[in-house]
Amino acid sequence: MSVDTLPKTAAPEAGNMSRLAFRMRDYGIVAALVIIVIALSVSTDTFLTSGNLVNLLDQTAVIGLLATGATICIISGVFDLTASATLALSAIIGVQVGRVTDVYVGMLAAVVAGALLGFVTGTVVVRSGVNSFVGTLATSMVYRGLAVMVTGGAIVYPLTASAETFGMLTWPSLFGLTSATIMFVVVVAILAVVVSRTTFGRRLYAVGGNAEAARLSGIRVGSIHVTAFMISGVCSALAGLILASRAGSAQSTMASGMELTAIAAAVVGGTSILGGEGAVWRALVGALLLTLIGNGFNLLGWDTIYQQVLQGLLILFAVTMDRWLRKRTR
Amino acid sequence: MSSQKAPSIAVRGVGKSYSGVSVLHDIDLDIAPGEVHGLVGENGAGKSTLLKILGGAIKADAGGLSFDGEQVTVGSPRDAIKHGISLISQEGALVPALSVLDNVFLARWSHRGGLVSARADRKRLAGLIETTGFTVDPDARVDGLPIGVQQQVEILRSLARGARVIAMDEPTAVLAEHEKENLLALIRTLAAGGTTIILVSHFLEEVLSVADRITVLRDGALIRTLTAGETSPRELVGHMVGREIDVLYPDPQPVPDGAPVVLAARGLRRGLVNGVDLEVRAGEILGIAGLVGSGRTETLRLLFGADRATDGVVEVDGVTLAQHSPRTAMAAGVALVPESRKEQGLVMQRSVAENVALSSLSGRRTGPFVKRPAEKTAVGEIAKSVDIRAADPEAPIETLSGGNQQKALFAKWLLRKPKVLLIDEPTRGVDVAAKTQIHHLITGLAADGMAVVCVSSEIEELLALSHRVLVLRHGEPVGEYPRGTSPEVVIAAAFGSHEGEPR
Ligand SMILES: Nc1ncnc2c1ncn2[C@@H]1O[C@H](COP(=O)(O)OP(=O)(O)OP(=O)(O)O)[C@@H](O)[C@H]1O
Ligand SMILES: [Mg+2]
């Protein structure tokens, strides 16, 4: 690209300043995270213990996976409100299939169910042409209803003989982290690469930023959306397995309402709800921030009745800050 | 038109930087009441930035404004409207889902006791439409209107707000020839009535014909303010680019005998378009002329498969495009540079590089991964050949000036090396020098065997660029004219007057 025009009018430091400004805008939310981490490290002596950190990451895994799915959907310009219903339904399917085959097959079945449910959600939204917010809201009711039907409203358990294996996601693994954490980190890393490095990722952003321009560039807008919903479905299923593995059971009311927390985490991380912008690592940061607040409340011994209020304020703060930083560099 | 007299405007020491890069510095400018003041300069010179500062859309970092000698702060569009300044921006600022009526009186609806009175607004609008001579349907939704008409709606809105200073950013870029004439006539009328007009345009003749004085910007600095009667396009261009340059359009090379027909359409129909047949040979540039609403853009969209024809076929190299869609058209080697950068062309929040690479992603990948170095090289080269001036290819494309965005849009499709290039308004918003450059590029591509179909509201451009010009009226071809036909003849045909009837 010809770089000879603007710099003519700008001093060399100006270029650096501009790059710095870009960075501030991009990484403001990371700074917020670091500040909270430092504050907690200083004000408690329990925060920086390996036990607490392992615990913290384990707690982040579920919301982190959901936030990643939400982020990918939001980048492409759709919302997936089925996330928690998909989570419950695929976890139940996982447990039930596990009962008749074995635990591993059951887990695989859960993931496949998540992908299929995502495919259905996506197809419904794309084919009907309904706004994704409404379309997925309705679909999520159907999924929850199916979960109730499948379980008869009861809690489902794996067979007693395999109950221990079923709890494997809670087991300690590499570096003393739980298996759930490892799985979460691996999945997020893969998706981060998919979104930032592949042609699919490029198309995802284009579709979310300007669907018509994307279509006229030869992109199949519908299949990009369906794929985004499928990824979100798989993330939900994995999150469902973690929850079920922890509880040793699954039920139709699992994780109810968590799709909104996931969207909140995505947005706190700095992904624009307008679509076409955002990143997977932001989902991670957003999920960590929300989890940290809960953790901080525990460690500081604060009354948890204030937690929701503070969480709400934090979301407002993060989003305002993000807007402000972006505006300043425009 | 305006109840009060326009103020005299003094701009003093105004400057603006974006993330440390100065795009406008130390601008001193005086504009007299009732003056038509032209503002010209290359793409990215800072014209829009200056207008946006006047219109309160952005804030200057340095300097200030005074009206009639009094310091004023224009911190928001609201302030600007209060001072009687109205900005008609390059990108357009209408609410797509609202009617013409609601847009014209946006946030200033007549009301009685808190209830909007559509009756009163309707009457006011009818009055405005009469003074301007526009023909717009008050109840039409604006997103369904052609760009030229949307523009008129914006002008009506400025007038409805009682603006005494109207700043127009490239208003004629989207207009057809006779609409331009109408607009220029309107500008003269408004100015005679005491309204100040600030006019940004890349059409120097037009600026010279209507403006009292003209200011030239270059690289964010004010180079000179000249009296329109005492200067020439040549002098203006000289000041704009800082040296003498030739701005002659190149002639296309003759189409070789026996060059095969690459693109053919038969009996295309859909909506407005009512039976278009055409053939374009390799190396040939076909121009399509017509009034706004004649179905030019729609025809291009049908050729590309952006809309699917209800009737008729499109053939590339003699093969009918079945399942016609942008994808199949692209696979057959067809590319479309669409009419509107913002709506159909670019993903504004993504980077310049991403936008340019978007239509040819699958050409540069290893498995699912984008080959980034290859992409960087390819984008860099094409950006150079169309002269995109961007400080940083990774910056969002919305931070580029309008003309540079247009060049990026063009580059995006050239990168595919298409066999058939469909271009809707190739040089919309592009500066004089860059325009010549784009013409060279198009004629060069045709010389290398590309088939080109080009729509332009600028008849001169169309006649200079094309081997043949097809004229559409009400969605039907009404004649075909060879190179060298006079613009008047083509315009007459577009209007349907008889003197222009073809051979
Ligand atoms: N929001 C922004 N962020 C960063 N740079 C910007 C922004 N807006 C404009 N610029 C830069 O400011 C410079 C001047 O832009 P401006 O839009 O005023 O040009 P212009 O003279 O109107 O050009 P054109 O004829 O192409 O419309 C350009 O280099 C552009 O890239
Ligand atoms: Mg401009």
TrEMBL record, chain A:
Domain of life per record? Bacteria
Q: Is the keyword Magnesium assigned to this protein?
A: no
Query: Under which name does UniProt file this protein?
Result: ABC transporter permease
- Subcellular localization, as worded in the UniProt entry: Cell membrane
Query: What coarse category fits the chief subcellular location reported for this protein?
Result: membrane
| Keywords associated with the record | Cell membrane, Membrane, Transmembrane, Transmembrane helix
Q: List the InterPro entries.
A: ABC_transp_permease (IPR001851)
Q: Which Pfam families match?
A: BPD_transp_2
Transmembrane segments in this chain: where?
A: 27-48, 60-83, 103-126, 133-157, 169-195, 224-244, 256-276, 283-302, 308-325
From TrEMBL, chain B:
Residue spans crossing the bilayer = none
MF terms (GO), sorted A to Z: ATP binding
Enumerate the spans annotated as ABC transporter domain.
9-244, 242-499
**Annotated keywords:** ATP-binding, Cell membrane, Membrane, Nucleotide-binding, Repeat, Sugar transport, Translocase, Transport
SMART domains xref list: AAA
UniProt-listed Pfam families = ABC_tran (PF00005)
List, alphabetically, the InterPro entries matched.
AAA+_ATPase, ABC_carbohydrate_import_ATPase, ABC_transporter-like_ATP-bd, ABC_transporter-like_CS, P-loop_NTPase
PANTHER family referenced in this protein's UniProt entry, alphabetically: CARBOHYDRATE TRANSPORT ATP-BINDING PROTEIN MG119-RELATED, D-ALLOSE IMPORT ATP-BINDING PROTEIN ALSA-RELATED
Q: What's the protein called, per UniProt?
A: Sugar ABC transporter ATP-binding protein
Q: What is the native source organism of this protein?
A: Paractinoplanes aksuensis
